[in-house]
Design a protein that fits this description.
This protein is α+β, with helices and mostly antiparallel strands. Helices cover 44% and strands 19% of the residues. It is built from 12 helices and 10 strands. A hairpin with a 2-residue loop joins strand 9 and strand 10 (304-314).
C-alpha cells in the first residue's frame, strides 16, 4: 500500500482512539464534533469509507459507525502511536513495589504477575526463566535407592530444578559426590545449555575419561526433555469479563480454554525471547486467541534474556497505557533480579 496521507492517518487514529475509549462504533459526525479537523462530516465519512475499503475499518452491523479491524490496529501500533501518546510511568516508584528480599525466584515472578494484573486491569502473563538459559551454580546428587537418583540443580539466579532418573548399576553416595564435584568444579558460571554442549563434546572426544555414571548424567543432559521449558503465571483472568467483547459466550469459552492450556502459551512466549523492546501481537497473529492482543517484553540478567512478561486483553486495549506499563515492568523486574 502506498504511504497513507497525513489527513487520512489522523482520521484513522482518531477513530481507533475514540473506539478504544468508548467501545462504541464511531460515526463521521462524532469525529467531526469531537475533533477539530476543519472537514465536513461528509468528507470524513468518505475517508472512513475508503479506510474500510482498504481493510483498516469495518462496521459490525447496519450502523454507519466504524470500528478498527486487526489490520487497522496493526497500522495504529506500527505507524500512528507516538512517544507523546504513551503514558508516563515512574520506574523508581514502580521498583519500590518490590519491598522484600526474596530467595525464591518463583515468588518474584508471581508477585510481578499480580502487580501487572492489578495495574493493567487485564490478564497478566509471566514466564519463569528457562532453566537452560540460567547460569549454573552447583549440582548435588542424592541416592534414593539402588536404582534411582535425585539430581538437584541450582542456578545463580536462585532457581532450583529437581530431576529423578534411573540407573542400571549400583552406585554409592561417594560415587555421586565425585560426579557432582567434577561438574561443579568444571562448569560453574556457564549456562546449562553451554554445559550440556561441553559435556557431550568432551565425551565424544575422550569417552574413556568419563566413568559410567558421568556418561549417564551426560546422556540425560543431551535429552531436550530433561529440562522443561519453564513455568508460567497467569493472574487476573476474570478481568476480561469486564470488557464487552467477551459478553459473547463462545469468545469467552475460547479465551478461558486457552488460559487452561498454559503449555501452549508458554511455547508461544518462548518464541518471543529473541525480541528486543515491547512486542504487540494482535488477534490472529497470536496463539489463536481471536479478538485479543498480547503485549510482551523480555526481562534479563545483564544482557541475557531470561523470560517474558506481558498482558493479554481485548484488541480494543488501551495500548498507550499498556505498552509503557509492560516496558517498565520488564525493566523493573530486570533491576529486581540484579538486587537479589
Amino acid at each position: 500500500m502506498s504511504k497513507m496521507d497525513e489527513r487520512v492517518q489522523k482520521i484513522l487514529k482518531t477513530v481507533i482512539t475514540a473506539y478504544i475509549e468508548t467501545g462504541e462504533p464511531i460515526g463521521s459526525r462524532t469525529v467531526s464534533k469531537k475533533y477539530d479537523f476543519w472537514l465536513s462530516p461528509a468528507t470524513i465519512r468518505n475517508i472512513m469509507a475508503d479506510l474500510e475499503d482498504l481493510g483498516f475499518l469495518t462496521h459490525p452491523y447496519t450502523s454507519s459507525g466504524r470500528i478498527p479491524t486487526e489490520k487497522g490496529y496493526r497500522y495504529y501500533i506500527d505507524s500512528l502511536i507516538s512517544h507523546s501518546d504513551l503514558e508516563h510511568i515512574d520506574e523508581e516508584q514502580f521498583l519500590s513495589r518490590y519491598q522484600n528480599k526474596r530467595t525464591d525466584i518463583s515468588e518474584l515472578m508471581h508477585e510481578t504477575s499480580q502487580i501487572l494484573s492489578m495495574l493493567s486491569h487485564y490478564t497478566s502473563v509471566v514466564t519463569t526463566p528457562r532453566f537452560t538459559n540460567t547460569i549454573f551454580k552447583h549440582l548435588k546428587f542424592i541416592m534414593l535407592d539402588n536404582r534411582s537418583i535425585l539430581a538437584i540443580f541450582v542456578s545463580q539466579e536462585g532457581i532450583v530444578h529437581n530431576k529423578f532418573f534411573a540407573v542400571d548399576e549400583d552406585y554409592t553416595q561417594k560415587d555421586l559426590d565425585w560426579v557432582a564435584a567434577y561438574i561443579n568444579d568444571e562448569f560453574e558460571g556457564l549456562t546449562i545449555g553451554q554445559i550440556r554442549e561441553k559435556l557431550i563434546e568432551g565425551m565424544r572426544m575422550d569417552k574413556a575419561h568419563y566413568n559410567k555414571l558421568l556418561i549417564r548424567v551426560i546422556n540425560k543432559y543431551s535429552e531436550d526433555s530433561f529440562f522443561d521449558i519453564g513455568d508460567i503465571f497467569l493472574d487476573g483472568k476474570a478481568n476480561v469479563l469486564d470488557h464487552p467483547e467477551f459478553s459473547d459466550i463462545e469468545k469467552m469459552k475460547q479465551l478461558f480454554k486457552t488460559f487452561e492450556e498454559k503449555y501452549t502459551i508458554l511455547k508461544f512466549l518462548n518464541r518471543c525471547l529473541d525480541n528486543d523492546g515491547v512486542k504487540v501481537i494482535i488477534g490472529d497473529e497470536n496463539i489463536g486467541i481471536s479478538h485479543c492482543s498480547l503485549v510482551v517484553a523480555n526481562y534479563k540478567d545483564g544482557n541475557r534474556v531470561l523470560g517474558t512478561i506481558g498482558v493479554i486483553g481485548p484488541t480494543r486495549m488501551e495500548y498507550s497505557r499498556i505498552i509503557p506499563l509492560v516496558d517498565v515492568t520488564a525493566r523493573t523486574l530486570t533491576k529486581a533480579l540484579s538486587r537479589e
